[in-house]
Design brief:
It is a single chain. The chain is α+β, with helices and mostly antiparallel strands and about 210 residues long. The chain has two domains: about 55 residues, no CATH class; about 140 residues, Nucleoside Triphosphate Pyrophosphohydrolase. Strands 1, 2, 3, 4, 5, 6, 7 and 8 form an eight-stranded mixed sheet that branches. The two termini are about 30 Å apart.
C-alpha cells in the first residue's frame, strides 16, 4: 500500500467519518460502556478538530458535536431570485462576502418553507419557490473544506414584494448582473454554480444532482 505523506491526508473527511460513527454508535449502543467509548471518540475528534482549525473548543463541541441520532448530512437551502436580468445577492456579516439568500433547513418546515422564511428574514422580501434547480453534495463541488457534510438545495424563486432591509446576519442587499458578480462566500455558493443555475432557468433544464 502506498504510504501517504501526512500533509496529503484529508483530515476533515477522516474526522467527519469518525464523528458520524461515534454519533450513530451513541444513538444505538445498548451497553453503557460502549456508549462511553463512543463518547470518548467524539471528544477526541472534537479536540483534534479544534487544534487543527484553531477554533474555540467549546464552540466546536456546541455546534458540531451536539447532535444526536443517526448521523446524516445537513441540508442548506438557497434561492435564485431575479429582477429583470439581475440576481439577488446578500452580503454576510460573518465573512463580509456575498451569497445567494438562504441557510439551513429548519425542523418542522419543508425545504421550500425554510427558504421562504430565510429570504424574508435576510432581505425583507416576500417570495415563492417555483422549482428545484439542483441538489448538490458540497464535497463534490469546488467549495473550500467545511464541516459538516452538507447537501445544497438551490431553488428558483419569484419575488412577490416587501421592503428590502438588512438583518443581524446580512449587511447589504443588492441585485447584480451575472457578468459582474461581487466576491462570493465560496463555502456557500460558487460563481460556477450561479452561472449553472442561471443557465438552467433560462433554458428550462431539468434539476441537476450530485
Amino acid at each position: 500500500m502506498l504510504k501517504k505523506d501526512k500533509d496529503t491526508i484529508d483530515w476533515l473527511t477522516f474526522m467527519q467519518s469518525l464523528q458520524s460513527i461515534a454519533q450513530t454508535g451513541i444513538a444505538y449502543a445498548k451497553d453503557v460502556y460502549d456508549k462511553e467509548r463512543y463518547q470518548d471518540i467524539l471528544n477526541l475528534v472534537s479536540d483534534q478538530y479544534a487544534d487543527i482549525t484553531g477554533a474555540e473548543q467549546t464552540k466546536v463541541k456546541a455546534t458540531l458535536f451536539n447532535e444526536v441520532g443517526y448521523a446524516t448530512p445537513k441540508i442548506c437551502v438557497r434561492g435564485l431570485c431575479f429582477k429583470g436580468d439581475k440576481i439577488l445577492l446578500v452580503k454576510e456579516r460573518e465573512e463580509n462576502l456575498w451569497s445567494l439568500p438562504g441557510g439551513w433547513a429548519e425542523i418542522n418546515l419543508s425545504p421550500s418553507e425554510s427558504l421562504i422564511k430565510e429570504i424574508k428574514e435576510e432581505t425583507g422580501l416576500d417570495s415563492e419557490v417555483t422549482c428545484l434547480l439542483s441538489l448538490w453534495d458540497k464535497q463534490k463541488h469546488d467549495h473550500p473544506e467545511h464541516w459538516p457534510h452538507t447537501y445544497l438545495a438551490f431553488y428558483h424563486c419569484k419575488l412577490l414584494g416587501g421592503v428590502m432591509q438588512t438583518s443581524h446576519e446580512i449587511s447589504e442587499i443588492e441585485f447584480f448582473n451575472i457578468d459582474s458578480l461581487p466576491e462570493l462566500s465560496t463555502h456557500r455558493v460558487t460563481e460556477k454554480q450561479i452561472l449553472t443555475l442561471v443557465n438552467m432557468v433560462k433554458n428550462k433544464g431539468n434539476a441537476d444532482f450530485d
